[in-house]
Automatic annotation (TrEMBL):
Recorded superkingdom: Bacteria
Membrane topology per record: Multi-pass membrane protein
Annotated organism of origin: Allomuricauda ruestringensis (strain DSM 13258 / CIP 107369 / LMG 19739 / B1) (Muricauda ruestringensis)
Protein name (database record): Amino acid carrier protein
GO terms assigned for molecular function: amino acid:sodium symporter activity
Length: 536
């Protein structure tokens, strides 16, 4: 029956109330306007080729084969030199910087002008090894480790965890290559400000190999996509999932609640990013350890409290990796795709984004930072993602939700309701430790905030490569970036996943093309640095 209002002595149908109840809220309107573009972009970037009767995204084939090639070519650097990487971060080899030869001036062409970098380029930088790692880790260790793991398991079951771990191990080698190149081809102005990342090693490195036009084209494509990725996976997805946790924990409601939370995040982020990489590094080197202890500590407590079930969880991971449940779409290949896809989003190996942060390090040896960079996928995927996955699998031993039964990014729960992303992880934590969902909420907000900070720097570097290094260019980017912080909190998880996934994965096309051409230069840098270490 329709609603009625009593006016004087007459009962008049309240058409105005009927209209208002069906009128869509602000967040819903924003989502409907954004969804068509998100769907189109996802379909474009994740185009598939049929292999053994299954459609496999071309982008994943490039990532997997490229990472495998680098792992073999560099003699399993991801495993053999893992201890060396830790020693570099600890500063064991810092005295080698004092013996570094003075580098000759390098003249590069940037934005049509010849730019003479400072002569002692190798001895310049803005942050130390740990700060560079902290900034890059804060950009990779984010909600992908909490929300995207839940998405991967919802879609692909426990077996997706196996493929995530494998992708993380292989991705260590790819990260080593891109971070080495990030330092080798960076640009440092007369004020000591560093400009680096794939935009520079694509344009400069490929020119050195005789592919000048190709290098300029790939660098421009990467820069455009990197700006988009900073708006999507590095920003909108983060504020989306942080808002989801805050709304869930405090039972908030309202048409514009998400937008308001996003606005608060935007204001806080704006205060920090105005200060540039040095301020971002100072914040992230404090926030990253805090959030790591907070989140990893809670996850380990849950795992240890259910230690008798952990072997069953891992047995399920290995079994389901090759023989998944019938409800999993795509079978074995579908599970593998989910694992690699979510790992790629989480650790960004092959996307080249972290090389932008690593380029700012104060070192004379590019390979030293390449070694530091390979620690990222290990920390991000092999450790943090695996812990999250085990917690969720332990939680779902009794079938709280149905693997593979997903609609709009949300899993079907046993009670008939639907839950998605970070809220599944939150429920898993709360079921083991009363009140831990609030601890997780705090961790989620810290993860989201630190990732937004790091990606603001990545996107800004790409923006400046495209539009110049003026103050107006700087401010324009930051305003647009902060608007996406608000937008992300207002749209649905399904829309933001489609846009974020595709934006970050799109970076792989230009970046991997460059890595597969420039890897011999990495070999030369690596051999030289290891020779110095051996002489020490």
């Amino acid at each position: 029956m329709g609603k009625f209002l009593l006016h004087s002595t007459l009962c008049i149908p309240s058409t105005s109330i009927l209209a208002s109840t069906s009128e869509k809220g602000l967040d819903e309107k924003i989502n409907e306007a954004f969804m068509p573009f998100a769907v189109w972009w996802e379909n474009l970037i994740l185009a598939e080729v049929p292999i053994f009767g299954h459609g496999i995204p071309i982008i994943l084939i490039i990532l997997i084969l490229g990472a495998l090639f680098f792992t073999v070519y560099f003699g399993f650097v991801n495993i053999r030199h893992f201890p060396t990487a830790i020693q570099v971060v600890r500063g064991k080899y810092d005295e080698l910087e004092k013996t570094a030869p003075k580098l000759k001036p390098q003249v590069y062409e940037v934005e049509g002008d010849l730019v003479d970098t400072i002569k002692d380029e190798g001895h310049s930088g803005e942050v130390n090894h740990f700060q560079a790692l902290a900034t890059a880790v804060s950009g990779t260790v984010g909600l992908g480790n909490i929300a995207m793991v839940a998405v991967a398991i919802s879609f692909g079951g426990p077996g997706a965890t196996f493929w995530m771990i494998l992708a993380g191990l292989l991705g260590m080698s790819t990260k080593f290559v891109e971070c080495t190149l990030g330092v080798k081809y960076r640009d440092i102005d007369t004020n000591g400000n560093v400009f680096g990342g794939p935009m520079y090693y694509l344009s400069r490195g490929l020119k050195q190999r005789g592919f000048s036009c190709l290098g300029k084209f790939l660098a421009a494509v990467f820069a455009i996509l990197c700006v988009g990725a900073s708006f999507g996976g590095g920003n909108a997805f983060q504020s989306n999932q942080a808002a989801a946790q805050i709304i869930e924990r405090f039972g908030l409601s309202g048409d514009a609640t998400g937008s308001i939370i996003g606005l608060v995040f935007a204001i806080l982020a704006g205060i920090v990013i105005i200060g540039g990489i040095k301020r971002i590094a100072k914040v992230t080197e404090k926030v990253v350890p805090l959030m790591a202890v907070l989140y990893v500590g809670a996850a380990l407590f849950i795992i240890l409290s259910k230690i008798e079930w952990v072997d069953d969880a891992f047995a399920l991971i290995f079994k389901e990796a090759f023989t998944p449940e019938a409800t999993i779409t795509g079978g074995f290949v579908g599970v593998m795709i989910q694992g690699f896809r979510r790992a790629a989003f989480s650790n960004e190996a092959g996307a080249g984004s972290a090389a932008i942060a690593h380029a700012a390090v104060n070192t004379s040896f590019p390979a030293s930072e390449g070694l530091v960079g390979l620690l990222e996928p290990f920390i991000d995927t092999v450790l943090v993602c695996t812990m999250t996955a085990v917690v969720i699998i332990l939680f779902n031993m009794d079938g709280v939700f149905v693997y593979g039964n997903v609609v709009e990014g949300q899993a079907l729960m046993a009670d008939g309701s639907r839950l998605g992303g970070v809220n599944i992880t939150s429920l898993a934590f709360e079921s083991s430790i009363n009140g831990s969902s609030y601890v997780l909420m705090a961790a989620v907000c810290l993860f989201a905030f630190s990732t937004i900070l790091s990606w603001s720097y990545y996107g800004l570097q790409a923006w400046k490569y495209l539009f110049g290094r003026s103050k107006i260019s700087d401010l324009t980017y930051k305003i647009i970036f902060l608007l996406f912080t608000v937008l992300g909190a207002a749209i649905t998880l399904d829309a933001v996943i489609k846009f974020s996934d595709a934006m970050i994965l799109a970076l792989v096309f230009p970046n991997m093309a460059g890595l597969l051409i420039l890897f011999p230069y990495v070999k030369k840098e690596f051999k030289g640095y290891m020779h110095l270490i051996a002489k020490k």
